[in-house]
Amino acid sequence: MNSEDLNAILRRIVEGNQTDSDIAALRDVLIFNGNQYIVQLGSGNINIGQGRDIKIENNTFNLPEAELIRKFLEKLTTIPHNLAKVRSGAVKFVGRDQDLESLHQQLQDKERIAITAVVTGMAGVGKTELAIQYALGQKQQFTYPGGICWIQVEESNVGVQLLRFAQSQLNLNPPDNWELRERLDYCWSRWQPSGDVLIILDNVRNYEEIQYYLPPLEQRFKVLITTRKLWLAESFEQLRLEVLEEDTALELLASFIGEYRLKAELETSKNLCNWLGKLPLGLELVGRFLKRRPNWTLARMMERLEQQRLESKPLQKISPESPKGVVEALELSWKELDELGKKIGSLLSLFALAPVKWELVMQCQPNEDEEEWEEARDEQLVNLSLIKETEGKTYQLHQLVRQYLRDKLELLPEAQTLKQSF
Ligand SMILES: Nc1ncnc2c1ncn2[C@@H]1O[C@H](COP(=O)(O)OP(=O)(O)OP(=O)(O)O)[C@@H](O)[C@H]1O
Ligand SMILES: [Mg+2]
Question: Which of 130, 256, 278, 284, when mutated, tests ligand 1's pocket best, judged by the most ligand atoms within 8 Å of its CB?
Fold first, then answer.
């Protein structure tokens, strides 16, 4: 769009003759920042500020017209959403440009009828944070004029939360005496404003808890799911989130402790990032801990972690703002394992950190039923993102997961026999 086009569109708005393509074109170039509307044009940005004329090139919209235009933009950019309740722990969001890009592409895929994108990955890798950043960014860009609805799946029933959103944000009030499903159908079919809608289901543990509440198969309803489960549902597009790269891991650490402190002990910083397996959760916890202790050197931190490992205070939740501790996060997955899953996980923790060939694992346990073991490995450990298949039948444990499983091993009744078998 150039300034001539913009002038023409704004003129039509003033006259009440704007078309759908005018609106779509405006949405593409409009940003809402603080309380200013900014239009991005090839020749530069135009700020449509408050209470003054709007001048674009040689054309001026005087005050009554300018007010009318601002009112229109306001309506155009008011998106129903409940993102205020979403808390981001990030002081600075690092990396993930590529992931945000692929996520957006998946959700905007024009060829599929029903779009559901799933972000999977291990505990604390940043699935929720990615979804938050995506939602906030797209809110600014007006990609989802039909609204952005954030559902915290573990909080309460998904259907009830959706209904509450429809009531409070869209003013839809289906009769109370209808069944939940019928009330939801009522809302889906009357969903306004028009245009794409983004529904985010954060932290889904199993398909059953969402399946009855998914929107109808229409292109405008896009669903974004975050889950630790690798195989939540086969028909969904997946985006697997990995740990950070070294430079972004350092950047995350620096966002808490400052460039200066990081650079003063650069080598130790790198070791620290590696010790934490470049996991955002671990990096953030350690960063917050160090921030509260300006006199600690990173070397002292490293020493503390090596001595006390996952039990050390820096890896626990230390303040109301901080995310849950590493052990607490992993515990949620551990609890979903059965006896055999726990046993396999613990056995794997005895191997070195490098990828482990499955045949070596089975060699430790020659009398066990291999098929049963493989099933437990895939259905439980791999599916819960506790271990990762790197190449054919080779498995990799994350540094912190290995540490965690090592500690769990000590508590298993068969700890001694497992160690001997190894
Ligand atoms: N790219 C990032 N930049 C900055 N901070 C991040 C980033 N990714 C994650 N974090 C921070 O790391 C912590 C853990 O991330 P998050 O809660 O998103 O993990 P998760 O994958 O959703 O974990 P879980 O499986 O337990 O739900 C959060 O406090 C988050 O703010
Ligand atoms: Mg999460």
Answer: 284
